[in-house]
Amino acid sequence: MQPAAVRRGESVGARRRPCRPTPLAHWIVVVIQWEVFEDLGTRLCRRVTQLKEAAQVEQRQGRQQGPDGSHPSGGSGQDSRNDGGRRDRDASGRARQARPRDALGRPLPYGSVGVEPVSETPLAPLAAIEAARVLVRAGRAFSAHEILEARWKACPREERDLWQGLAQLCVGLTHEARGNHRGAVRLLDRGAARLGGYRLAGGPTYGLDLDAVIACARRGGCVG
After folding, report:
1. Per residue, what are the HEC states of 10-35?
2. Nearest to 122 by CA among 153, 160, 167, 93
3. CA angle 163, 165, 170 (to 5 degrees)
4. DSSP state, residue 159
5. Any idea what DSSP says for residue 75?
6. Which of 112, 122, 145, 156 could form an S-S bond across to 150 if both were Cys, CB 3.0 to 4.6 Å?
7. Residue 66 DSSP class
8. How far is 163 from 129, CA to CA, in rounded Å?
């Protein structure tokens, strides 16, 4: 007696053949998978572009930094501006810092009473060293940094490491006074290394004992 499938005109092999997707269904699956990967690739490309743009912004801000390699005035790296969105300027039109600051260099609201600002005019080497020493002893390392920075901008090229290194030490002291111990150690080490290189080069020290200054910075800063 023949099987029921044979009597119905069906082959036994046909019943056992596994179900396979049609070419149309196969391509639908491929298209769906491709769209998923394409969307993932688009999102990855967008994220990479965002990271590149952020790196470019940081690089531009790094070029705007002073000799200390940081922005102790607040960490933003941007120019201080008044309520009208314009840079503070003096009567001659030159950019000047008019916003009041506290003893640690932190900006205060306009109209507040801050510490007496230091002159932005470069002082002579000995005068700059003495002014910076007085300010550091008074707890105003940030203002001492401004004195040394002004000297750094005006000094001969061969003396740049001296004034930049001293300014970095003052920034390190500023960070320490603000409670940023990690930033203080980094700037003190950087300033000490720069002064060490300058000492080996044999440039003028204007009465400073660089060995003592470097040793003091390695111990974590001093006010002498």
Report:
1. CCHHHHHCCCCCCHHHHHHHHHHHHH
2. 153
3. 95
4. G
5. S
6. 122
7. -
8. 9
Residue pair 190/69 in contact by the 8 Å Cβ criterion = yes
For residues 152 and 136, the answer to whether their CB atoms sit within 8 Å is no
* Residue 63, amino acid: R
Model pTM score? 0.60
Tokens of 157: 């090229």
Q: Which CATH superfamily is domain 125-218 in?
A: TTHA0068-like (1.10.3450.10)
Nearest Cα to Cα of residue 156 among 118, 201, 189, 120: 201
User: Which of 191, 180, 94 has its CA nearest to residue 152?
Assistant: 191
pLDDT of 131-148, one tens digit each? 999 999 999 999 999 999
Reading the chain (224 residues) residue by residue, the pLDDT tens digits are: 555 544 555 544 445 555 555 555 555 555 555 454 455 556 655 666 666 666 665 555 544 455 555 555 544 333 444 444 455 555 565 556 678 999 888 988 888 888 999 988 999 999 999 999 999 999 999 999 999 999 999 999 999 999 999 999 999 999 999 999 999 999 999 999 999 999 999 999 999 999 999 999 988 655 55
Angle at 155 between CA 152 and CA 161, to 5 degrees: 55
